[in-house]
Amino acid sequence: MATGPSGGSLGYWQLDVLQLDQGHLHAAAGTSSFTIKVTDASSQTATEPTSITIAAGPLTSTVPSGAILPSASPGSSTSAQLGTVTVNDLRGMASASWTATVTATTFVAGGATAPETIPLTQITYWSGPGTTTTGTGTFTPGQANPAAAVNLTVPRTAFTLTAGSSVNSAAWNPTLSVSVPASAAAGTYTATITHSVA
């Protein structure tokens, strides 16, 4: 029982509370407000402004630990998929966007002399289509098919999102191709392929 403004008994209170279903909460990061309304049996009301803070998370990318291309002879070429690259966006932005970029170092073997170096002009990349995406927005591969492959002489766009939902992700399995110079020395060549997102 409770006492009303006139000092009389109000009877039992009826409490109406906004329920937030965590499994379907896709609000942007920040502070959101809602009001709790209490109605008694005599239709008298009281309100209490209340807020909830939705914390922003990180924007990250993950890549496989490594990849091995098939062996090739001088003057020939080789290619392989690098494994799944994934971008996870937990920033909670009202309209999310990001760009994933790929860069590479030259392939070198032994002492990295000229015959033991494969320049970036001989290394091409294409992202291929997204293998999985979550959330909404416009997900766009940098190079959707082999015909769109680009060399890695400069940083290249691998994947983008525009007008995205507050939580989203995308994954793709890019292909790397290497044209081995005819003057290349025998050996095991290594390079570093880097994906970053911002």
Average of per-residue pLDDT values: 86
Q: Measured on Cα atoms, how large is the radius of gyration?
A: 28 Å
Give the SSE order as H and E letters.
Answer: EEEEEEEEEEEEEEEEE
Number of helices: 0
Q: How would the global form be characterised?
A: rod-shaped
The strand count comes to 17
Query: What are the low-pLDDT stretches, counting only 5+ consecutive residues below 50?
Result: 1-26
Overall tally of structural domains? 2
Strand order of the largest sheet: 4-6-15-11
Helix content: under 10%
Distance between the termini: 57 Å
Note the main sheet: 4 strands, antiparallel
**What share of residues are in beta strands?**
over 45%
By helix and strand content, what is the structural category? mainly beta
List the main descriptive attributes of the protein structure presented here.
198 residues, mainly beta, 2 domains, four-stranded antiparallel beta sheet, rod-shaped, disordered N terminus
Describe what you observe in this structure.
A four-stranded antiparallel beta sheet has the order 4-6-15-11, with no helix packed on it. Mean pLDDT is 86; it is low at 1-26. It is rod-shaped. The chain is built from no helices and 17 strands. The termini are far apart. It has 198 residues and is an all-beta fold. It has two domains: 13-54, no CATH class; 59-197, no CATH class.
